[in-house]
């Protein structure tokens, strides 16, 4: 490697465009060293610089009175009352998870946890939004198995509860699964740690695992599309060590209880390079690093390798010099490496020394300010194929059973059973028990509600509406447990931004998100953009995954989806029989057509605020939003969760039965209450459409057409797919 | 009774355990870092769940050689009480304080769901607030909970009444444990190891108080 001549060809190999390399030459006034070229190439990679998306992300609302830190820090921070703050973020590990599913997913979990505890928060919950390829594709099973094991292997060991998430399957993810991991932590609101370095002469301290050659140029890999040779990129995948992560959490939190830390940042993508450059850059100081002091796992590493390594479980801190000994003792207790590897300077430059030589000397301001920013060409996304009037090809009962069994709706028990959801002793609503996970804050009555949401098939048909829907559904899921939605983190997964139609999707999605965030007072406080999710020229579906966070003052008020017997079922929200892009249309009628359901933001807000107020007032025994699969699937899920049957009344005149029961109109909830008539009256008085659906009880689901399905039949249909496919090795047979 | 929780690097259910103990004892337990060896005044030593040393060797094998193990052994010899849950159970078997071993779950996967435990003895310091034969729910979260011992040892455990809990219907035996064994006692009934986590079910808001009698039993002893 050291023998390579640094020139335009090598720059291109490192992912720098010709114009970008010319800018490097202008900034330095000379040819860069190998280490310098590496630093520029990772800092200016799509992954680190957001060069294709930055211009558009500015549209997103990021402030609210309860937002303490929005985008720009390691994670978003919001005030949750009681003097506490929630710190949270979602981040992708898509490319590594395709190459090496276990380690790719595991290190994704580890990385996002570091983003949270680096701000002083103890991680209390993990969620993950996963998109896999067609179950019939030969590789999908291996990827699902590895990703689920990896998420569990890391999170279970560290001891942070994995409480929620979502899973979709679609052929567009065959060569490019999406693994988006979210971590939520809690800190005292007056004890938030930031990354801006300060204090010339202060020691720069490296803590955690030793540096090896793993993950070199990972950020660059994450910024390029895959071709058939992705297997050869396996050495760029990092290897996780959750045990060290656990020690690092405890050691950092112990140190954070003192006044030793001036600034701290984890070494994530682009490792030592991005952490040192960003900390010094944000603080407006310079930084001098001595790589001989870096704890090393392998002999003979070059400056280039050390600066670009993405070895996991490492942090960089700036300490008050008089507290260095105290900090060293804490890390010694936890048996972690602790090494002063540099000092802050007043030079405004990053200067990297190794074995007596200066390997890099770069002015920090232009490295940040002159980072490329592109307004890439956009093309309007193609409209979806039109939806023609449909007869009901299946009848309600067979259609329901087919939907409950399909990969996108079937029970996720096989996955949840591998994630420790109870560690920490605060999980009030475990996965599947409610629309959002509910995790109480230790020592408080207060709880956080957490969800991840996105419906990529809607986004593919209409990126703006689909992205607005993702935001609205997250807000709705938080509302459905009784929480007040506060803020969201996003993970924008798209294809190659150099394709105008992909760029068009991204721009439309951001526009749709921004409108929904504004209408719902639901700002974006952190996020991640993952582009180039493309293999052999085929893009993933546009997938703007939303991670929502809400708060409730009293965890005891949280409502789940499990039906009790002897209650009335009521639908809140308007029914119009919208089947475009519905799962019924895809799974039962065999087509993906029409516009997705439109998101009526004022209605969303009105219905949601009404539901939340009813939950707070008491008397709501169960609540579930209507989403994938429509109303009948929502009711069936409530039946299964409660192990209590229901008898349903006919839908309104003027709508077909399949339109009413399987349409996916937005802004709707199903509630179980003692007095359905009273709820309907109150809703109508508040301008919220409402309709009694039936009553609960017994051991069957009785449909309005008289068909009766036993709970056992429902359950067997619902729970079969994942265990059959993953444990019994049964091939997936698409139905219909 | 004074309780202490032993903290090995990689343990991660110490907070859950402290909450459960505090609830029943009315005061928080002492938290003891594994390099300290002073158990003065401690009646019951609790080794909580987690992944001590990452479980990178065998589960519990490294912790069984930690500096504090000598003190814990001495505590056992003195007739002190010891409770090991999950990784704590694994550590006790690795240290030889309880017989047998915990192998990989039979399905070779981490299992995190509620199981049902049948109380085999209601007359021990750990179980006096349960009835013999009572079935209660407890969350489990482990990859290596498949209890194994040779037939002679299993016969002895059963013959001497040292099986504390067994996996019971309707959930049954999730991990392949020999003779459905979920928890065992030492011959003097003062050391208990079990795989599931009663400490995570001591609060109605979190789904029930099925695990609370275990800690109430200890607190009353």
Describe, in plain words, how this protein is organized in 3D.
The complex is a heterodimer of chains A (736) and B (221). Chain A has 26 helices and 28 strands. Chain A is an alpha+beta fold. Chain A has a seven-stranded mixed sheet with strand order 8-10-7-11-9-12-13. A seven-stranded mixed sheet of chain A has the order 23-25-22-26-24-27-28, sandwiched between helices. In chain A, strand 14 and strand 15 form a beta hairpin. The radius of gyration of chain A is 26 Å and the shape is globular. Chain B is α/β, with parallel strands linked by helices and 221 residues long. Helix content of chain B is 21%, strand content 25%. Chain B contains five helices and eleven strands. Chain B has helices spanning 14-25, 69-77, 87-94, 151-159, 212-220, and strands at 3-7, 30-33, 44-47, 81-85, 101-103, 111-119, 135-142, 146-148, 163-167, 181-185, 191-194. Chain B has a nine-stranded mixed sheet with strand order 2-1-3-4-11-10-9-6-7, sandwiched between helices. In chain B, strands 5-8 form a two-stranded antiparallel ribbon. In chain B, helix 1 (14-25) links the parallel strand 1 (3-7) and strand 2. In chain B, helix 1 (14-25) packs across helix 5. The N and C termini of chain B lie close together (7 Å). The interface between A and B is medium-sized, with 35 and 32 residues.
């Amino acid at each position: 490697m050291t023998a390579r001549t640094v020139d335009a060809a090598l720059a291109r190999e490192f992912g720098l465009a010709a114009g970008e390399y010319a800018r490097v030459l202008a900034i330095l006034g000379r040819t860069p060293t190998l280490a310098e070229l590496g630093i520029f190439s990772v800092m200016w990679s799509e992954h680190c610089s957001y060069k294709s998306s930055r211009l558009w992300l500015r549209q997103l609302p990021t402030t609210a009175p309860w937002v303490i830190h929005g985008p720009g820090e390691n994670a978003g921070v919001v005030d949750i009352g009681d003097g506490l703050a929630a710190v949270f973020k979602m981040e992708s590990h898509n490319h590594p998870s395709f190459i090496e599913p276990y380690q790719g997913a595991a290190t994704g979990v580890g990385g996002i946890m570091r983003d949270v505890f680096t701000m002083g928060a103890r991680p209390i919950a993990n969620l993950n939004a996963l998109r896999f390829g067609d179950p019939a594709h030969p590789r999908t099973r291996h990827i699902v198995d590895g990703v689920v094991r990896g998420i569990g292997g890391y999170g279970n060991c560290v001891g942070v509860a994995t409480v929620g998430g979502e899973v979709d399957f679609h052929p567009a993810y065959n060569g490019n699964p999406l693994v988006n991991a979210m971590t939520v932590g809690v800190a005292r609101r007056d004890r938030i740690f930031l990354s801006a370095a300060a204090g010339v002469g202060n020691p720069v301290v490296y803590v955690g695992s030793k540096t090896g050659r793993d993950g070199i140029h990972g950020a660059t890999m994450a910024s390029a599309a895959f071709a058939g040779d992705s297997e050869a990129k396996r050495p760029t995948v990092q290897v996780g060590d959750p045990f060290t992560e656990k020690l690092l959490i405890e050691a950092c939190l112990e140190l954070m209880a003192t006044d030793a830390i001036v600034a701290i940042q984890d070494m994530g993508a682009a490792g030592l390079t991005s952490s040192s450059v960003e900390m010094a850059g944000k603080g407006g100081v310079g930084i001098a690093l001595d790589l001989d002091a870096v704890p090393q796992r392998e002999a003979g590493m070059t400056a280039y390798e050390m600066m670009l390594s993405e070895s996991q479980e490492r942090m960089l801190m700036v300490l008050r010099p008089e507290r260095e000994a105290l900090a060293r003792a804490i890390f010694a207790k936890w048996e972690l490496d602790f090494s002063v590897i540099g000092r802050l300077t007043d030079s405004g430059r990053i200067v990297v020394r190794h074995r007596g030589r200066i390997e890099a000397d770069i002015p920090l301001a232009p490295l940040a300010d002159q980072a490329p920013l592109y307004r890439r060409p956009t093309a309007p996304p193609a409209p979806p194929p039109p939806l023609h009037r449909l007869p009901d090809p299946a009848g309600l009962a067979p259609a329901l059973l087919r939907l409950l069994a399909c990969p996108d709706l079937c029970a996720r028990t096989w996955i949840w059973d591998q994630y420790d959801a109870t560690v920490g002793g605060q999980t009030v609503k475990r996965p599947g028990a409610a629309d959002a996970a509910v995790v109480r804050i230790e020592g408080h009555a207060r709880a956080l509600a957490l969800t991840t949401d996105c419906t990529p098939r809607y986004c593919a048909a209409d990126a703006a509406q689909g992205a607005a829907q993702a935001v609205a559904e997250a807000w709705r899921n938080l509302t459905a447990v009784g929480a007040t939605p506060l803020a969201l983190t996003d993970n924008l997964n798209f294809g190659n931004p150099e394709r105008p139609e992909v760029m068009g999707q991204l721009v439309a999605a951001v526009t749709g998100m921004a409108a929904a965030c504004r209408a719902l007072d639901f700002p974006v406080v952190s996020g991640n953009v993952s582009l180039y999710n493309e293999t052999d020229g085929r893009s993933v579906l546009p997938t703007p995954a939303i991670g929502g966070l809400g708060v409730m003052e009293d965890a005891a008020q949280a409502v789940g989806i499990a039906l009790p017997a002897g209650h009335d079922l009521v639908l809140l929200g308007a029914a119009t029989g919208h089947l475009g892009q519905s799962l019924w249309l895809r799974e039962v009628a065999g087509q993906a057509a029409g516009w997705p359901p439109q998101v009526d933001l004022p209605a969303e807000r009105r219905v949601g605020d009404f539901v939340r107020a009813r939950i707070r007032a008491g008397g709501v025994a169960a609540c579930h939003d209507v989403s994938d699969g429509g109303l009948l699937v929502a009711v069936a899920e409530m039946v299964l969760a409660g192990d209590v049957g229901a008898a349903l009344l006919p839908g309104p005149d003027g709508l077909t039965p399949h339109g009413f029961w399987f349409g996916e109109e937005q802004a709707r909830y199903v509630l179980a209450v003692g007095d359905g008539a009273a709820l309907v009256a109150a809703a109508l008085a508040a301008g919220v459409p409402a309709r009694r659906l039936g009553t609960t009880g017994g051991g069957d689901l009785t449909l309005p057409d008289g068909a009766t399905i036993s709970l056992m039949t429902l359950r067997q249909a619902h729970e079969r797919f994942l265990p059959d496919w993953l444990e019994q090795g049964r091939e997936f047979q698409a139905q219909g | 009774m004074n309780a202490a929780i032993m903290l090995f690097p990689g343990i991660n259910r110490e907070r859950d355990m402290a909450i459960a103990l505090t609830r029943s004892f009315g005061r928080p337990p002492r938290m003891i870092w594994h390099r300290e060896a002073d158990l003065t005044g401690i009646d019951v030593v609790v080794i909580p769940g987690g992944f001590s040393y990452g479980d990178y060797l065998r589960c519990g094998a490294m912790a069984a050689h930690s500096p504090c193990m000598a003190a814990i052994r001495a505590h056992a010899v003195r007739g002190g009480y010891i409770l090991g849950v999950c990784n704590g159970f694994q550590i006790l078997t690795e240290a030889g304080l309880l017989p047998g071993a915990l192998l990989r779950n039979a399905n070779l996967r981490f299992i995190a769901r509620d199981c049902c435990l049948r109380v085999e003895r209601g007359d021990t310091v750990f179980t006096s607030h349960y009835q013999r034969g009572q079935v209660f729910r407890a969350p489990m979260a482990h990859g290596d909970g498949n209890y194994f011992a040779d037939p002679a040892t299993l016969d002895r455990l059963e013959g001497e009444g040292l099986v504390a809990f067994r996996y019971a219907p309707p959930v049954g035996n999730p991990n392949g444990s020999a003779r459905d064994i979920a928890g065992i006692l030492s011959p003097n009934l003062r050391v208990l190891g079990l795989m599931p986590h009663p400490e995570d079910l001591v609060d109605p808001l979190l789904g029930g108080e099925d695990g609370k009698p275990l800690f109430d039993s200890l607190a009353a002893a």
